[in-house]
């Protein structure tokens, strides 16, 4: 569910990339730039939660599942318990259905496999457009 | 938070329009097919490498090489971790599986298809607690890792000679 509080006219669509893999952060940042999105990247769930605690806000969060310090499911639960209702998309390289299911139940809106592609971003945008 | 004088429904409508404009421009955008022909035909690389090539542009003309260099720098550490873990007795299969999973994730991100398949074999041995299998499959992983590195070095050497972006038909 997209928070209307996040909407700011005249500003680019903002995405928070949460992933402990430097290569994935670089690739996803580049991919999102192609869509003319503004993106910010952090290394783990705790950094993502801290950003929100500091007052930052994003239209979309791309949350990796497995990270040190604070993993994706924990960070997602934490953000939801804080009342953050931005779209959170789980991004995982583990293909098991039960693991994805558990991650989704933590509070995700969607779960996709990484690395993301242009097609995945396009599909996500179509889903996001339906939410408005 | 910036105050807006427009009613909420207007804000939501304009955001929706913004998203549809982005979708439309992406659909209309002309994309030049690019491919690492030979490496894909030989099965070393998959579609993900093409995605990286397509992200490369005039502002980031060496993006693919940058990412691949980053990969080989970071993955050397993971390879070393796995090697050290394989020397322990008894083997910690959970740790081995975890380390290989990280390595496999990074390898997937550059489209290293053959290497990813070798990693899967290793993971299967971890799941069944097959120590000898892990050691054997890890040798294959290292062999494939080195082979891909050589191929990619040749690819980038070739790319530098012919220009910033190689346009080619994708292999059928």
Map the helices and strands.
The complex is a heterodimer of chains A (132) and B (172).
Chain A: E1 14-18, H1 22-34, E2 38-42, H2 45-53, E3 60-64, H3 72-81, E4 87-92, H4 97-105, E5 110-113, H5 118-131
Parallel strand pairs in A: 1-2, 1-3, 3-4, 4-5
Helix pairs in contact in A: 2-3
Chain B: H1 8-28, H2 37-41, H3 47-55, H4 63-86, H5 93-109, H6 113-127, H7 131-162
Helix pairs in contact in B: 4-5, 4-7, 5-6, 6-7
Signal peptide (chain B): 1-36
Function (chain B): Functions as a two-component phosphorelay mediators between cytokinin sensor histidine kinases and response regulators (B-type ARRs). Plays an important role in propagating cytokinin signal transduction.
Main location (chain B): cytoplasm
Strand order of the largest sheet of chain A: 2-1-3-4-5
Uncertain stretches of 5 or more adjacent residues of chain B: 28-35, 164-172
User: How does the helix and strand content of chain A classify structurally?
Assistant: alpha/beta
Name of the level-1 CATH class of chain B: Mainly Alpha
Strand content of chain B: under 5%
Number of helices of chain A: 5
**At the third CATH level, what is the topology name of chain A?**
Rossmann fold
Helix-strand pattern of chain A: EHEHEHEHEH
Instruction: Quote the beta fraction of chain A.
Output: 15-25%
Distance between the termini of chain A: 9 Å
How is the biggest beta sheet of chain B arranged? none
Which architecture name of chain A does CATH use? Answer: 3-Layer(aba) Sandwich
How many domains is the backbone of chain B divided into? 1
User: Could you give the count of β-strands of chain B?
Assistant: 0
């Amino acid at each position: 569910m997209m928070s209307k509080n996040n909407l700011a006219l005249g500003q680019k669509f903002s995405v928070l990339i949460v992933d402990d893999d430097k290569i994935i952060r670089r690739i996803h940042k580049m991919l999102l730039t192609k869509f003319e999105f503004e993106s910010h990247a952090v290394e783990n769930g705790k950094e993502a939660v801290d950003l929100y605690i500091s007052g930052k806000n994003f239209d979309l969060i791309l949350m990796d599942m497995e990270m040190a310090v604070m993993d994706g499911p924990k960070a997602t639960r934490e953000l939801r318990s804080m009342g953050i209702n931005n779209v959170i998309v789980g991004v995982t390289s583990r293909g098991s259905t039960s693991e994805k299911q558990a991650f989704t139940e933590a509070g995700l809106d969607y779960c996709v496999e990484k690395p993301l592609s242009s097609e995945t971003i396009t599909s996500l945008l179509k889903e996001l457009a339906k939410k408005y | 938070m910036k105050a807006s004088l427009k009613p909420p429904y207007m804000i939501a409508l304009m955001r929706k329009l913004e998203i549809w404009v982005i979708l439309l421009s992406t659909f209309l955008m002309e994309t030049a097919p690019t491919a690492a022909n030979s490496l894909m035909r030989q099965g070393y690389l998959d579609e993900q490498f093409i995605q990286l090539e397509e992200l490369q542009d005039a502002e980031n003309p060496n993006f693919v090489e940058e990412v691949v260099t980053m990969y080989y720098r970071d993955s050397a550490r993971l390879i070393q971790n796995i090697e050290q873990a394989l020397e322990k007795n008894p083997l910690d299969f959970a740790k081995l599986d975890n380390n290989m999973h990280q390595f496999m994730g990074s390898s997937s991100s550059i489209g290293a298809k053959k290497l990813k398949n070798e990693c899967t074999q290793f993971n299967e041995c971890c799941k069944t607690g097959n120590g000898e299998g892990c050691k054997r499959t890890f040798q294959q992983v290292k062999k494939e890792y080195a082979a891909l590195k050589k191929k990619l070095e040749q690819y980038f050497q070739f790319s530098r000679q012919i220009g910033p972006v190689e346009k080619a038909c994708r292999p059928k």
